[in-house]
Amino acid sequence: MPQFLYNKSMQGHGPRNMDNVLDMAILGGGPAGLTAARYALFAELNVALISPDLGGKVSYPFALRGMSPVDTVWGAEMVREFADYVGEHLQHHIAERAARVLRRDDGAFTIVLENGQEAVARSIIICTGVRAERLFVDGETKYWGRGLSFSAISHAPLFKGRDVAVVGSGDRAILAVHILSRLANKVYHIAVRKQESSADLANLAWSRPNVEVFRGWEVQQIVGDATEGDVDAAEDYVRGIDLVGLNGEVRRLDVEGVCIQMALLPNNSAVRGLVALADDGHILVDQNCATDLPGIFAAGDITSTCAEQVPVSIGEGAKASLAAWRYLASL
């Protein structure tokens, strides 16, 4: 067992030796977490990266019918370089998830892992990211990356001249309609699961001549080439989306792309109740990526500056690590 890890059974056996306390614990191994770890290594801090893997969601090739798969993630190569460097030089990679972070009386923090072990650190950087809210309908996972996207801002240019459906009703969906209406041939907006959005922004998007809105309809399934017959998996792409109305009417929209733009759900359970959160669950940070609790910082899409872009997460990870370094120097 690494020297800084403790079993719960060891609790109550006197104070822990502060020499075994980490300078920094980074929760999450995606672009922000890897960048933070790279800067911490440069500063020669005693740092641990707590994450089941390194790299996060940086390599998801996307393809449409008649188009070769492309890597649409800007900065992915840099993230891979950071992953290689951190993997080679980092002494403490804990391949677990953090279940809970607790503030100690001495000002440090206890990180409780899902396996029950614990680590103690003087500072923490939360880089646990978000997960996209799903529809949980047939075809949703099968056609992910084959015409189905959970991030229109990442894939919009690929739909130029094609018909595409946007599913969702919040500002994220409305923004997707705005972006796609300038590129796609036709945009169908399926406004499911009522979510708050700016009325002015929505009306502007819906006023575009190539935008058609479907209110009161639910998605039944995502249809692909293989839905109605056997085809080569390499040629199996989105070809439509089936809707069902309140009166039971079923309708199919022939599209080559589906952008599911529901909410982004922050992975904040480890620090919920410990640091301030926005109404949507993102961690509130200032311009230095600091939370309202001294010693805890956050970076990437988990924060209130969520941008769904790897280069932004890289920059925020660097900023958070530098801010944590300054914090440690002041102790």
Describe this structure in words.
The protein is an alpha/beta fold and 331 residues long. The protein has six helices and 18 strands. It has helices spanning 31-42, 76-89, 152-155, 171-181, 199-206, 310-329, and strands at residues 5-6, 22-27, 47-50, 92-94, 98-103, 109-113, 118-126, 130-132, 148-149, 163-167, 186-191, 211-215, 217-224, 238-245, 250-253, 257-260, 264-266, 296-298. The strands form four sheets. Strands 1, 2, 3, 4, 5, 6, 7 and 18 form an eight-stranded mixed sheet that branches. α1 packs across α2. The longest helix has 20 residues, at 310-329. Mean pLDDT is 89; it is low at 9-18.
Question: What keywords describe this structure?
Answer:
331 residues, alpha/beta, five-stranded parallel β-sheet, 26% strand
Shape: elongated
- Provide the structure class: alpha/beta
Mean pLDDT: 89
Number of helices: 6
The radius of gyration over CA amounts to 22 Å
Give the low-pLDDT segments.
Answer: 9-18
Question: What is the quaternary state of this protein?
Answer: single chain
Number of strands: 18
Query: Sheet bearing the most strands, described?
Result: 8 strands, mixed
Query: Which percent band covers the strand fraction?
Result: 25-35%
Distance between the termini: 28 Å
Q: Helix share of residues?
A: 10-25%
Order of SSEs: EEHEHEEEEEEHEHEHEEEEEEEH
